[in-house]
# Entry
Amino acid sequence: MKKLRVATGHLQGCFGCHMAILDLDEDLLSLLDSIDIVRSPINDVKSVPKVDLGILDGALCNTSNVAVAREFRKKAGKILAFGTCAAFGGINGLRNLFSLDDVLQRAYVETESTVRGKVPSSPDIPAMLPHVRAVHQEIAVDYELPGCPPTPKMIRSVLKDIIGGKKPVIPQKNLCHECNRKHQEMYVPKREFVTNAVHAIMELDVIDPDRCFLEQGLICMGPATREGCEARCVKGNVPCRGCMGPTTGALEQGAKMINALASILPAGAMMFMEDVVGVGYRYSLPVSIYPYREEK
Ligand code: SF4
Ligand code: SF4
Ligand code: SF4
# Structure
């Protein structure tokens, strides 16, 4: 069988998505029977050869990221936006709340440990983009696999589909569908809120490991987040923070969450007690309609 030629590229992110490929462990060896990875940040080939599949992780934050993404689009038959940074902008996108000048000042001049700081400037340094963007906001993308990072099971399944010539199917429903916690109360129509209190996780002495976080007054992004991660945080008694991004068809993750909360918690209390952007838009601000700050 002819092997699929694959190139991988890293844009802006923590590199965790590339590390997640290594998490395939011995499955990586059998995968290599079907694919040839001819370019990756690990083998440090700078140019992009012609390939069947280009896998890009990370968001677009500077002009070099844009050039790499465009080069991949020219050379690759199909493009997979790999991970939440590539699909939605990810954590990087939170900088869209600030002007680029403010971000650079903060990073290079104002940090408490900086003495006589200066914003670096040279034609050799790629210029930062005014706002962080997801990959599909710059080039056409054929497939998206969200996750911060995607689980090995999802990576295996998506690559298997692509190798087999099929369009990969990623989960469509929200995380509550794959969460085993009891969450009946929030579906019962009634006048009262399910809980009147909204807590930070460290405020509670005991968190019931079997009951829905929302029904205990803890913000969990499950209703507005795509399933597929096997509810890995929730199983560890930590509420979901939404890293799989919005479900298919949701206009935006934060608004969907506020809508979902309206009948469960006093939404106003949630908005004052919690960081609305940091919770609702932590991973998907660049693809949301939440307004970003204009340059001065
Ligand atoms: S999606 Fe998450 S794991 Fe992947 S590069 Fe971005 S921050 Fe890192
Ligand atoms: S809100 Fe969170 S804890 Fe509740 S059912 Fe959904 S994923 Fe599970
Ligand atoms: S539970 Fe939520 S935050 Fe945790 S991995 Fe899944 S989608 Fe991401």
Remarks:
- Residues 63-75 form the longest helix (13 residues).
- The first strand starts at residue 4 and ends at 10.
- The chain has a mean pLDDT of 89.
